[in-house]
User: Fold this.
Amino acid sequence: MSTAVVTFPGSNCDRDCALALREGLGAPAARAWHKDHELPPGTTSVILPGGFSYGDYLRCGAMAALSPIMAAVKRFADAGGPVLGICNGFQILCEARLLPGALLRNHDGLFHCEDAELEVSAGGAGMLMCFDRRQRITLPIAHGEGNYTADAATLDRLESEGRVAFRYVARDAQGNGAVNGAQRGIAGILGGPAGNVVGLMPHPERRSGAHLHGADGLVLLRGLVAAGQRPGEVRP
Amino acid sequence: MSAATGSTLARLQDTDLSAVEHARDMGLDDAEYQRAQQVLGRVPNKVELGCFAAMWSEHCSYKSSRVHLRRLPTTGPRVLVGPGENAGVVDVGEGWAVAFKVESHNHPSYIEPYQGAATGVGGILRDVFTMGARPIAAMNLLRFGRPEHPKTAALLAGVVKGIGGYGNCFGVPTVYSSTDFDARYDGNILVNAFALGVLRADAIWKGTASGVGNPVMYVGAKTGRDGIHGATMASDSFSEGEEQERPTVQVGDPFKEKLLMEACMELFAAAPEQGGLLVGIQDMGAAGLTSSCFEMASRAGSGVRIDLDRVPTREQSMSAYELMLSESQERMLLVAKRGCEDAVRAIFSTWDLDCVTIGTVTDDGMVRLVKGGVEVAVLPARELADDAPRYERPFAAPPASPAPAPTWSSIEIGARAHVCSPALAPKSWIYRRYDREVGAGTLLDGSNAAAALVRIPHTQRAVAMALCCVGRWCSADPREGARRALIEGVLRTSCVGALPIGATDCLNYGNPRVPEVMGSLVEGIEGIREACLALDVPVVSGNVSLYNSTDERAIHPTPAVGVVGLVEDFAKALARPARAGDTMAVIGWPPAGPTLDLGRVRRLGELLRAMRLEGESLEAQPVMEGGLVSTLVELARRFGGGLFASLPSWGDAASTLHSEEAVAAAVVLPPERLQEAHQRARVADVPFEVLGALGGHHFVVAAEGAPLFEWATEALFADLEAVIPRIVRGERA
Assistant:
C-alpha cells in the first residue's frame, strides 16, 4: 500500500510530496512516471504534484492531461480511488475533465507566493475526514494561474452538492478570491464518483511540519492516505 | 601551431574589412590583435578571430581584474573547490557539500528585462548543477535607476517577472532579494543572480576534457542565432540611443533546463560500479561552444576536435562563426568515457533531450573545428583560455563622493520619509513574485528574516545566506563599502544562528580604462580581502562585471557579496514567533566613525549566533543601511504590531536614529531569558542595552524618557507596503 506521486518532466513538487508523506506521516510513497501506462502495484492513493508538467507554454496541464499515466489515473479515480491534485495537479485534473471548470491567469496577471487563509467547506468525510467543516487553516499558494472559473450552473451545482472543498477567506467585493480572482473564492473542489478526487491550488506539502511554519497540510495528506486504506468509506 | 596547417584554413571572407578592422569590430584592441597573430604565427581567419575576441573579452578572461583578484583569500579547511571552476564548493559536514556562485546579467537585462533576467537565473543554475549539485536556493541583487526615471517601472516589473518566470518553473526557491534604486543606475541596471546547490562532498564534477579518444558530447537545447557576441557585449559600455542596435538577447526555456538538470543528475549517479560514465562537464554559458571547448581542453592540457556539422541546430545554414559564438541557452558540453556513449544517450533520451557526439579529445593542445570536412579553425587551447592577456591597468585614488545628508524639518518627518524611501521600504511585492518554498526546505526567507535559511535535504543541517551591497557607501569609500558588503552578510547570517563558511562576489564597476574606476575596483577587492581575513570567510567563487557605464557616467561601485553560513541543527536556529510582551534590546557599540571595526563585527556575530542557538534571540536584525530606526521598523513589521523603544545612549536623537556607523544589532528576547542574554553579552564584552518591548498598535520611539514620535502601525505598514507597487505602476514616489 502506498501513495503514488506522479512525476511529469516539469513537476517540481513531486519530491516535496514524497518527503511530506515519508517524514511527516511515515507513509510510503512511490514514483509514477508520466510515460507509464499503469500506476505502481499496490497504489492506494495518488498525488498529482505542483510544477509545470510539460513546460505549460500552452494551457497549464493541457498536455499532461493527455499523457499515458493520466489514463491510468482516470481509471483509478473512476473506481473510487483517492486522487489529490495540488496546484499544477489541480490544473491537470480540470484539463483531464476529472474535475469541472478551469484555472485561468490570476486576475492581476501576477504570480503570487504567500500564505492563504482557507475555510474547509466540505470537511468531515473522504479525504477531508480529518478536518472539521468550516475549520480555518493556512496553506501557502504559489501560482500564476489559480483563478478558478466555471459557468454559473457548474458553480451552483458544486455548491449545492457540497463539492467546494476549500475557499479563500479573503474575498473581493464580488465575493471572488482576493488574491487571484477565483470565482466564489474557490481554492479547491472535489469530484469523482464518491468525492474521491480533490484538487486545490494551495500546497499542503509545504505545511507538513513545525519547521515548515505549520502542519495544516499534513492533515489533508493524512486524510488522503487514510482514504486509500479504507476505500469503502470514501464518501463526501 | 605550424604555418603549414594555417595555410589550409579559409581566408577571411569579407574583403571589405582588413583583419585588424574585423578584430576591432569584435572588441579586440590592436595590441590584442597583434598578440593573436603572434600566437598563431599567421593572420587569423574570421572564425578564429571570433574565438579570440570571445575568450579574451573581459567577461571570459577577467583580464583587467585577474591580477587583483589573486589577493582574495580563497582557501580554508572547508573549501573543496575555489574560484576558477563553474562554482565554488564548501564542505558542510556529514558527507555533504554546497556549491554556489553569483553572476551578473546586467547588460542583457537592460536591453530586454524579462529574458535578460530569466537567462541570468538559468546561467547561474547551470553553473551550479554542472558541478554535480542539485540547486536548492537562489538569491538576487537588483539595482535600478531612480524610481521616477521613465524606464524604471518597466525594468523593475520585467526583471522581477523574468527571475520568477525562470526560477519558479525550474523549481528552485528564490529566498533572498536585495533591491535598491539610485540615479547612478539610470542607464545601467544591475541584475546579479546567485544559486546554491547541494552535492556529496566526494562527487564533485569539473569542466575537464581529458583522456585521448574520449567522445565530446553536446546535450540539451538546439543551437540558434541568439546571443551571438554576448560576451563581448558584456565587455563594452553603452551610449544613449544605441539600444536598438544591440544584438539579440538569449531566450530562456526553464522547462528545458529542468529536464537538463534532471538528466545531468541521473548521469552523475550512473554506473557507480565502473566509476561513472563521465569525465568532465561544462555549461555553455557566455561565448557558448567557444568557451566550453577552450576551457575544458585548457584545464586538462588536452585538445579537442569538433565536427561543427554535428551540432544540433534550430536554424538553417548556420556558419561556423555563428555556431561557435551562439549563446543559445540550456546547453552543456560533456566528455564521456569512451564506450559509454550509448548509456549517456539513453539517459538524455529519457528526458527527451538531444545528445550528440560532436568530437573527440586529442592530445595536441589544439582546438580544431571542422565544417564540411575541412578545418575552419585551429587554435591552441591554453593560449586562448588560461593565457589570455592580463592587464595591470593604471589606477588612481577614486574621489570620495559621500551622498549629502538629507535635511528634514523635524525628526519625526525625517524618520518617516527615511523608512518609506524606496531603498529601505520592504520588498514584499517583489518577494511574492518568487516561489520561495518549492523544495519544501525553506525554513526562513528574506521577506521576513535577516537572512534566508534552507534545509540541506535528508539532514538536520541548514545553510543561511544573504546577498548584500550598498552602492552609496562604495561611492563614499570604495574599500569600506566593500568591507561592509561582507560584514552585512556575516551579521545577517549570524542573526539566524549560522556560522559564515564561504562567500561569493560579483564585482560590478564601470569602465576599467578610467583610472579612478579601476582604482575603486582595486580598493573594493582590498576591502573584501580585509573583511574576509578578519572574519574567516573565504571567497570561493565570483564574477566581475565591468563597463557598467553610459556616456562615461559609471554606476556606484557595487561589489555584491553573497555570504553562506552553516547551521548544524536547524531546530535550534528556529525560534517561536515574536509576541506582545517580548523584550527588545540593542547589542553592540555606538557609532564610532565611518570605518566599522572588524574585531567588533566578529564578536557581535559570535554573540548573535550564540543567542539564537540558545533560544534567546527570537528575531534579530543588524543596524546597517538606514540606521537604527530602519532596524526597529523592520522588527515591528516582522512582528506585525507595535513596539516601544527608548533610544540607546548613543548621542543626539537624530544621529542615533539614522547613523550607519554603529556595529550593532537589535534583538527580540523572551522576557524570561533577558538575564541570561544580558549575562552572555557581558561575558562576551559586548554592550547590551534594553530598548523596550513589543506590543500594542503603535510604533513609539522615546529618548531620555520623553516620546519623540508615535506612529499607528496600521498606517505605517500600509505606507511601507505601498512604496514598491507605486514604483511598479510608474507613479511618482
